[in-house]
Specification:
InterPro entries: Acyl_transf_3_dom
Oligomer: single chain
GO molecular function: O-acetyltransferase activity
Radius of gyration: 20 Å
Strand content: under 5%
Low-confidence stretches: none
Pfam families: Acyl_transf_3
Family: Belongs to the acyltransferase 3 family.
Distance between the termini: 33 Å
Protein name: Acyltransferase 3 family protein
Length: 341
């Protein structure tokens, strides 16, 4: 693989790794509620928390950077409209799945009150908050692009204040939007020069970021308030650089590149569908397999594998059955959109 191909492939590798981390996180949450996930998985997710969503959002910002050069109309038609449509559609699908299928043990209110389908546009309460956040971030990135440097500085301070509970918000979605905003904006506004810099010296950056991550990880548990917030934001920044360097190296190894890039190119179908599948598998394992030996240790990996495969299979079936509208704007809508210049 050429250097240019590697620089392009590592983004898909990193996306693939990040979506798998999200599935691992949700599998642990649901199985833990059922008493079927070892505490080691909780510790693993705690260790990976500083990188999981910052990496996902930074890569999303990097891939959205081209939209910032286009007009507002193009941004609304080709990005905001898509996210709004997917958020609405999958909110409805999830609502009725949990209303008439199984209880969402993590968020029992999902599926209980139709009013949540409306209030969710202001205060998302499900895992679909990520799609909602992407739409909001795209608008902010476009609006503040002329003032990128000072805006990013303000967002970093706001992120640290949110992590440190100086800015306290009740909604987890609002908390996450404030906490992770600078990572998306950094990817959207400064992603290209940052990637070029990373590609020139991945070993040095991996070493430095690893040392910083270890130091901040050891210190953060001893801090609180503003100091904790600053350290926590820095911890994610160090993890983001280190994970990007690891992805760059992984992209040079063909088996890892092929596997993770495939997941990276299919993050959307995995993301929108995996949580209902994970919650169903967790309920089934707890009800039918609780007596099997060592379920607490193999249940999470099994759930991750099956849920990821099932989400991808659902996408494949939908494509073949003419149900592409589950993952993209309906053709009736896109046909009326003006062509790009």
């Amino acid at each position: 693989m050429s250097g240019q191909d590697t620089r392009q492939a590592w983004v898909d590798v990193a996306k693939g790794a990040s979506i798998l981390l999200v599935v691992v996180y949700h599998a642990t949450l649901y199985l833990r509620i059922e008493g079927q996930a070892a505490y080691a998985f909780v510790q693993l997710n705690t260790l990976l928390e500083p990188v999981r969503m910052p990496l996902f959002f930074c890569l999303s910002g990097f891939l959205a950077a081209g939209m910032l050069q286009r007009g507002w109309g193009d941004l609304f038609r080709r990005r905001i409209l898509l996210f709004a449509y997917l958020f609405a559609l999958w909110s409805i699908l999830r609502f009725y799945f949990y209303r008439y299928g199984i209880e969402n043990t993590l968020t029992p209110s999902e599926g209980a009150d139709h009013a949540e389908l409306l209030s969710g546009w202001l205060v998302p309460s499900s895992g679909l908050w990520f799609i909602w956040a992407l739409a909001l971030y795209a608008l902010i990135a476009k609006a503040l692009y002329p003032w990128a440097a000072p805006a990013l500085a303000v967002l970093v301070v706001l992120s640290a204040a949110t992590f440190g509970q100086i800015v306290a918000v009740e909604s987890f979605a609002h908390h996450n939007v404030l906490a992770y905003a600078p990572y998306f904006m950094a990817g959207a506004w400064y992603g290209r020069p940052a990637v070029a810099f990373l590609a020139q010296r991945p070993c040095a950056l991996l070493l430095v970021s690893g040392v910083l991550f270890a130091g901040l990880l050891a210190a953060v548990s001893q801090l609180d308030g503003a100091a904790y917030g600053a350290a926590r934001a820095g911890l994610s920044a160090a993890a983001l650089v280190g994970a990007s360097a690891v992805a760059l190296f992984a992209a040079r190894w063909s088996p890892a590149e092929r596997t993770l890039s495939y997941f990276g190119r299919n993050t959307l179908p995995i993301y929108v569908a995996h949580t209902p599948i994970v919650s169903l598998l967790a309920a089934l394992l707890a009800a039918q397999a609780a007596d099997l030996p060592l379920l607490r240790y193999w249940g999470v990996p099994l759930t991750v594998i099956v849920a990821t495969a099932a989400a991808l299979a659902l996408h494949s079936v939908a494509e073949r059955a003419g149900l592409r509208f589950l993952y993209a704007l309906p053709q009736a809508v896109t046909a009326r959109m003006p062509k790009r210049a």
